[in-house]
Design a protein that fits this description.
Strand content: 15-25%
Number of domains: 1
Helix content: 25-40%
CATH architecture: 3-Layer(aba) Sandwich
Largest sheet: 5 strands, parallel
Distance between the termini: 13 Å
Bound molecules: ligand CA2
Mean pLDDT: 97
Radius of gyration: 14 Å
Structural class: alpha/beta
Number of strands: 5
Shape: globular
Order of helices and strands: EHHEHEHEEH
CATH class: Alpha Beta
């Protein structure tokens, strides 16, 4: 039986690979999804990948994941640092949660140092570029056994 892992990206990450490559690299979100799907396939995992600039949409996807997905890999973008609502939605989700940040948020402005999501996440990756998504997925696959 195949497992679904829900890859959720938050605001402005639709610009990945199109702006600020010195911070976020040259890969687009489609490239990230393709790389994760290539890694997932042989492990019997299916990737569902979505991006939204809207907090409520992200919350709706987290609720949907309660019924459909064994794990969530989430880069909540700037909502990381502001959203109690995304934290609450993740608290109601029982599967694995991995938080990914492309940049090392701890090396950046102080307002990026706190994450509401980290208090729920099973693991946090920051500063591994877009490879962080694949590293999180490797961990999910390993934990699924
Ligand atoms: O490092 C990360 O992945 C962040 O989650 C990215 C967010 C930022 O607010 C967080 O503090 C750290 C910003 C996403 C913006 O994405 C862009 C990608 C390419 C070009 C412009 C913006």
């Amino acid at each position: 039986m195949s497992h679904t892992v829900f890859l959720i990206n938050g605001p402005n990450l639709n610009l990945l690979g199109k702006r600020e490559p010195e911070i976020y690299g040259a890969d687009t979100l489609d490239d990230v999804t393709a790389k994760c799907s290539a890694l997932a396939g042989p492990a019997g995992v299916v990737i569902r990948s979505e991006q939204s600039n809207h907090e409520g949409q992200i919350i709706d996807w987290i609720h949907e994941a309660r019924e459909t997905s064994v794990a969530i890999i989430i880069n909540p973008g700037a909502f990381t640092h502001t959203s109690v609502a995304i934290y609450d939605a993740l608290q109601a989700y029982e599967g694995l949660v991995f938080e990914v940040h492309i940049s090392n948020v701890h090396k950046r402005e102080a307002f990026r140092h706190h994450s509401y999501v980290s208090a729920r996440a099973d693991g946090v990756l920051a500063g591994f570029g877009v490879e962080g998504y694949e590293l999180a997925l490797r961990r999910v696959i390993s934990l699924l056994g």
